[in-house]
Amino acid sequence: MSEPSFSELDVPIDTNIEKEKPSSKVLRGMPDFFEIEATERGEQIDSDKNPEYVMINLDTNCGMQCPKCAEPGQGAAERGKSLSNEERTAILDLAAEIGVKELVVVGTGEPTKWNNYINQVKPAIEAAYERKMGTVLFTTAIGLTQEQAEFYRDHDVTVIVSLDSLDPANYARLVGHADKPGASNILPAVLEHIRILRETYAADSAQATADGRSIVRLGVNVTVQGANVDELEAIRDFAGDDMMFIANVLMPEGRARRFEDFEKLVGEKGLDALRKRAAEMSDTGGHSSLANEVCSYFNRGISVDTDGRELFCGYDSQTHKLGNIQDHLSAQEVLQRYQEKRTVYRAWCEQIGQKPSCPNRVEDTPGQPSFAEFLDEWRERQQPES
């Protein structure tokens, strides 16, 4: 008997809320974009067989100090030696072999800082492009230049810009720079860099799907917090027709891991209210890669940390449960681990009676294991008895 698909699981999702209206946009590199491509070719995507994404964390630094950040910090004790560009390229070779379509760079630092861009980001994107993969790049755009924008455009990069406020003072607070000299100048610089991106990518805005939706290659990503939930409409208006508007809720990881810090960021309205508002407002219904209400970076991808260890999710460097990808650098072994993760996630969803969009965003359920604990228990049960 085959495993049920996520859409067939008879369990509630963590946010069963309809968007205000269906999006008129499709973001290049997201699941619905790949579905459209497959349909045009007369094919069907089998996500149980092959992943679509490889998330690779680069060992980059960041000048921001965002309280929301899921990154545990540079030099985290549990990490080993960072991968070289050559080792990352070997992972991309493997990813291409097993059918991956998109490299995703979410961390660990700011990719547009010049040293990060030249030494790690640009080589990774070039390697992906040479293997006929696109790239999804998350950034604050604080260091973006015209040269970078043109490079991203010409190398099939979808750029998603974090923009948590349109108020200079609030933006400075949310990136941890409220008390720093020149804090009021940070947002204007970011907005200027977004202007550069929009002008550079403008020629692509004419692409459309058969059903009339526009294909866009830029996005605005808002992490909804108590301090910015009332700005969502203004930020969505700013995104306009050429940028996908993405709204998602806080993740209790990294700097936000401590309970008191997380509760402070959530604010008086509470997490459920933020989650509901994000789902209502976001063009995607939540975070960027949702498909069947589950994050596709997790559910349809493999994630690799700076040192090569596999993660459940590139946003969470605490989930080293799958070993180091360099120790099993073969297509068969990587596919087995990918398929095991999907199978275990289905079983976990059924046990806890929920279908979380992300294992790191589900609230603790008394008496129920976390996904990491469930995976450990699952593997113990699979071991042959001695």
TrEMBL record:
The lineage of its organism: Bacteria, Candidatus Berkelbacteria. GO terms for molecular function: catalytic activity; iron-sulfur cluster binding; metal ion binding. This is Radical SAM core domain-containing protein. Residues 60-176 form the Radical SAM core domain. Keywords: Iron, Iron-sulfur, Metal-binding, S-adenosyl-L-methionine. Pfam families: Radical_SAM. Residues 1-24 are annotated as: Disordered. InterPro entries: Aldolase_TIM (IPR013785), Radical_SAM_PqqE_MftC-like (IPR050377), rSAM (IPR007197), rSAM_sf (IPR058240).
